[in-house]
Write a structure and sequence with these properties.
This protein is α/β, with parallel strands linked by helices. It contains 33 helices and 15 strands.
């Protein structure tokens, strides 16, 4: 059997037409040669060449009538696609394979295919489906008495990802399960799987600063590394080993491995990658060596090696590697006081992230992707650098970076590219509106005001912080003072709890966001405040902020947006108020009754032409059929639902189940509504997930996924009677000539504020408008 390498592989690709002239008896031999050649190409880092060879192998196996070989070659193509970071293509191919394999009895091929699908689902963030698929794969392997090591390893990675996402008491359960699964996977007979299991366990222990336990793994890992054949798997394993060793050295003064030994390991890896011609692994190892120099404060060496890693990564268009090293270069330059150069490096990293968009899951080839650790800090740290000298150009760039972070968060929420950044100036959008941007930095809350045809204004509120917190660290926008004030505000929103000064937190946040710009807003005759908020501030009931005399809603119309990527809206004339109104008033399993919903929908029907789906009629299928049969400018859904920072926990309730946010665009047929999109989506009974301070990310996700130009939703569930009253007033106001959507909502909220029954902000403050406010 011939193993094709280098020019031989390329020659094979060039002669693919030769398959057409082979005799039937030669196809099988040719397919096996191609499969072996693809495996070799992948082992030395040529994933694209491997992919093409395995496509050839699939064609040859098909000619030979070998179904098992055909599907095996397709599974190999999945491995190549994963190595290229093309996880969505890999998922599509795997789903096609499994659709066929599911009709067949249990087999090793079926178990392998399911495992690959589970790993891809994990990579793109669909943890619940990944768990189901991987457990099915494990069940088949155990049934066939096959070695389950690779599947156990994948399940360990899944449990680790669940632990990283989970902020509840069950987090530790996931954490300990990951350890147990890694230990079980390490008992496999496959040396590569055994090594990876030990490396992943070491990484987990290093991240949790358990240096003593981690050091016990080092001798076995070193031994396994020496026995692994030289190839990409070994190169990546060595780099990951070095990364964990660097973390352990940072956490413990008694590290088992000296920096010089780590540097030698990485230098050897670079040399081995060169000898194999594996340029990607070379860039990966060089960048990690730069990180070692960075942690040792050897700035000159760190800069030199990191620049070299960036150059190599860019030469092969490996943006997923380049972005990490561009960020690293920015940190290194900043430490040397070279701020303009640091800003340039950070800006290049942000630009690269914009190119990657939906493929961000591929940033670290052998570790679970973490937006919060590997992407979000790049945006924040760039803004922090820009605001050290807040010139007009720096403020302009900072504003663009804040908007880019908002879009990146939404893309990460769905784990796919949902929105491209197409910023507009505020005067293009609305000359009577002002935009307020906030961003949470380690030691301050930065706020930028954008007024039509005026220079940007900047203000910040500094908070006490340690010297470590004020440096460019992997800060994620958390601040204990802001967190506490946020909690105090929400505690004051219960009408059943009395307080000596209930408006104090409302006024404090007003002082942070609005008061520094009061005169500018008054001079510009601003009518609408549009907020691009950051972190937990996205969940603020803005209408309830207070200046000491008035609530903010008494002064301005209000809206939230992830940025000025506003879809052009049209004013709704009376004959365009056709509405699809659906909801559930009766109790459903796990959900209480909403008796006011029936009255709310009845009131809407008396105000605008409405098609109604209530209770048993409000099914997913019926909703889909109604939306497919006619265009409804307004869709009003009065049903239980939840907004969460986790996509799997963001949903709307129907009579027969749930509509997950991922499926919302298909349900609302966004693809067929480019000429007649939904102008206004109203969700009047949903709420943010309890205890989830970033749950409004899910609300923004619903707004985006629906394709609606404007969305009105609630931060918490409000009493049925007050909701019905507010919605009635909203529709009355909306039909007045020349009124904007934000102003119609404002007038509806003011009608409750001025009533004797609903003056407390609990009743009217949770309603927020997202997207187009006009």
């Amino acid at each position: 059997m011939v193993i094709l390498t280098g020019e031989g592989a390329i020659a094979s690709l060039a002669s693919s037409a030769s398959l057409q002239s082979l005799s039937t008896t030669d196809y099988l031999s040719k397919a096996q040669d191609l499969n072996q050649a693809g495996a070799h190409q992948l082992s030395i880092g040529n994933a694209q060449a491997a992919l093409e060879l395995w496509k050839e192998a699939e064609a040859a196996y098909t000619r030979a009538g070998d179904t098992t070989g055909q599907f095996g070659s397709r599974l190999n193509q999945v491995q190549a696609l994963k190595a290229l970071g093309q996880y969505r293509r890999a998922r599509t191919l795997l789903e096609q394979i499994n659709a066929h394999l599911n009709t067949l009895p249990a087999s090793a091929l079926k178990a392998s295919s399911l495992r690959s699908l589970g790993i891809v689902l994990l990579r793109i963030g669909d943890l619940s489906e990944s768990k189901r698929v991987l457990e099915f794969s494990l069940e088949i392997s155990q049934q066939l008495k096959e070695d389950p090591g690779s599947t156990l390893l994948a399940l360990g990675n899944l449990s680790r990802a669940q632990a990283e996402q989970d902020q509840s008491k069950t987090r530790q359960t996931h954490y300990f399960r990951a350890i147990a699964l890694y230990q079980e996977a390490a008992e496999t007979i496959n040396p590569e799987t055994r090594l990876q299991a030990r490396l992943n366990l070491l990484s987990l222990l290093a991240d949790s600063k358990q240096a003593a336990h981690a050091s016990l793994l080092l001798p076995e890992i070193q031994s396994l590394l020496e026995t692994l054949p030289l190839g990409r798997s070994r190169l990546y394993a060595q780099v990951n080993f070095a990364e964990s060793l660097i973390k352990l050295a940072a956490h413990s003064s008694q590290s088992a491995t000296a920096p010089a030994a780590i540097a030698q390991l990485l230098a050897d890896t670079v040399h081995q990658a060169k000898s194999l011609g594996d340029v990607r692994s070379q860039a990966y190892a060089l960048g990690q060596l730069g990180y070692l120099y960075e942690t040792s404060k050897q700035w000159k060496d760190a800069e030199q090696v990191t620049r070299q890693a960036i150059q190599i990564a860019q030469s092969i268009q490996a943006e997923d590697i380049a972005v990490s090293w561009q960020w690293q270069l920015g940190r290194i330059l900043h430490q040397q006081g070279r701020t303009p150069e640091a800003i340039e490096a950070y800006s290049q990293a942000v630009d690269t992230l914009g190119v990657l968009r939906g493929d961000l899951v591929a940033i670290n080839p052998d570790a679970q992707f973490s937006f919060r650790e590997q992407v979000e800090p790049i945006y924040r740290q760039l803004v922090q650098l820009l605001l050290e000298e807040p010139t007009e150009s720096h403020l302009q760039q900072a504003r663009a970076v804040i908007e880019a972070l908002q879009i990146a968060e939404l893309n990460n929420f769905f784990r796919e590219a949902c929105l491209d950044t197409l910023p507009q100036s505020i005067e293009q959008v609305d000359p009577k509106a002002a935009v307020i941007y906030s961003i949470l930095l380690p030691d301050r809350l930065a706020v930028i005001l954008s007024l039509p045809e005026q220079p940007l204004r900047y203000h910040f509120t500094r908070f006490p912080a340690s010297s470590q917190e004020t440096s460019l660290s992997q800060n994620q926008g958390n601040n204990r003072i802001i967190d506490q004030t946020f909690d105090d505000l929400f505690a004051s929103l219960s009408p059943f709890i009395s307080s000596a000064n209930p408006l104090q937190p409302h006024q404090k946040i007003y002082d942070w966001l609005i008061r520094p710009f009061e005169q500018d807003l008054a001079n510009s005759e601003t009518q609408t405040l549009v907020f691009v908020l950051d972190g937990i501030l996205q969940g603020l009931p803005l209408a309830a902020l207070h200046d000491g005399q008035q609530y903010l809603i008494e002064k301005y119309s209000l809206a939230l947006t992830p940025g000025l990527q506003i879809l052009p809206s049209r004013s709704l004339t009376p004959d365009q108020f056709r509405t699809l109104a659906g909801g559930i008033s009766e109790e459903r399993p796990g959900f209480s009754a909403l008796p006011g919903v029936a009255e709310e929908i009845e009131q809407i029907s008396t105000l605008v032409p409405a098609n109604v789906l209530l209770n048993q009629a409000f099914t997913t299928r019926a909703l889909n059929e109604k939306l497919a049969s006619a265009a409804f400018p307004i869709v009003h859904l009065a049903t239980h639902g939840q907004f969460s920072s986790q996509v799997d926990n963001t949903f709307l309730l129907t009579w027969d189940g749930r509509i997950q946010v991922r499926d919302l665009d298909r349900l609302l047929e966004m693809g067929d509504r480019q000429n007649q999109p939904i102008e206004l989506l109203i969700l009047s009974a949903c709420q943010t997930a309890k205890g989830d301070k970033r749950a409004v990310l899910g609300m923004a996700g619903v707004a985006l996924r629906s394709g609606a130009r404007s969305t009105i939703a609630t931060l918490w569930s409000v009493q049925d009677d007050s909701t019905s009253e507010l919605m009635t007033q909203f529709y009355i106001q909306l039909q007045k000539p020349g009124i904007t959507r934000a102003e119609a909502l404002r007038q509806a909220q003011l009608s409750l504020l001025r009533s004797s029954n609903y003056q407390h902000p609990y009743h009217w403050a949770p309603f927020v408008l997202i997207g187009n406010w006009r």
